[in-house]
Design a protein that fits this description.
- It is globular, with a radius of gyration of 18 Å.
- It is of the alpha/beta class.
- The strands form three sheets. It has a six-stranded mixed β-sheet with strand order 5-6-7-3-8-9, with helices on both faces. Strands 2-1-4 form a three-stranded antiparallel β-sheet, covered by helices on one side.
- It is 27% helix and 31% strand.
- The chain has three domains: 1-70 and 146-210, P-loop containing nucleotide triphosphate hydrolases (Rossmann fold); 76-144; 215-255.
- α2 crosses α3 (101-114).
């Protein structure tokens, strides 16, 4: 069993760039193994907050505790070396992050197959479309056995098949005990444990849906194999349409009731 660092805690965190106050007295606890969405408009400070959570930036004031040593991070501006091939890039990162060469190759190949990279894993990164480059960014964030995964607008530019695969990856790692934080414009249907809204530097909880609300499990088969997707009632039809458009075959839809 992995040694986990526990909850991630921010206490009265502020961040200032010269005279501009980007984060203002932000306090939040992110429980271990939870899925958290940070919602907000462009320029609201989401990227600044996520950089602090990932440990790549420090606050001007306040404290951050519980950042683990193993963090997977997808920045909003993901710019890998353009001449490297996707599979070589992931393999290189895997070795840097402590995987054996064989494990890095296998994990890289599995992730690139799962995200359905086009035209091929051997493509050079500089030749990829925005959406396919985002898929590589998602793959590198999930490459190693990280205790914390921080994703800044991971859905930006993704095609219809990318969203369900991202949701499946998030569910898989949180089920294993990792914590996931996502900056997202979409507030619903992705199984978040908490949703936080960032506006004018202030962070506030978004009121959760009723726990009595019905949710559904959708069993589907695609090129990546069989998957089960969890979705709220309000988003069921949209996810079904997305899956069908992406070439998934629906096996069944099951209703779950929350106590």
């Amino acid at each position: 069993m992995r040694d986990r660092s526990g909850d991630l805690l921010l206490r009265e965190v502020s961040k200032r760039y010269r005279r501009r106050l980007v984060l203002d007295q932000v306090s939040v606890r992110l429980p271990r193994g939870s899925r958290t969405a940070v919602l907000g408009s462009n320029g609201s400070g989401k990227s600044t907050l996520l950089r602090i959570l990932a440990g790549v930036s420090v606050p001007t004031s306040g404290t951050v505790t519980g950042i683990p040593s193993r963090v997977g991070y997808l920045p909003a501006a993901f710019a890998p070396p353009p001449l490297m091939r996707a599979v070589d890039y992931l393999g290189h990162l895997g070795r840097i992050r402590g995987l054996t060469p064989a494990a890095a190759r296998h994990r890289s190949a599995d992730l690139l197959e799962l995200v359905d990279l086009a035209p091929a894993p051997s493509a050079r990164l500089g030749a990829l479309s925005t959406g396919n480059l985002r898929k590589v960014g998602i793959a590198q964030a999930f490459l190693s056995d990280s205790d914390l995964i921080v994703l800044d607008e991971p859905r930006a530019g993704l095609d219809d098949s990318g969203g369900p695969v991202l949701d499946q990856l998030v569910r898989s790692v949180t089920a294993a005990g990792s914590t996931v934080i996502i900056a997202d414009h979409e507030a619903g249907g992705n199984g978040y444990d908490q949703r936080l809204s960032l506006s004018s530097g202030r962070l506030a909880p978004v009121e959760p849906a009723s726990r009595a609300e019905a949710s559904y499990r959708i069993d589907a088969v695609g090129r990546a194999g069989r998957r089960t997707f969890e979705v709220a009632d309000a988003d069921r039809d949209r996810l079904l349409a997305d899956l069908l458009a992406a070439g998934w075959s629906i096996i069944g839809v099951r209703a779950d009731a929350h106590d």
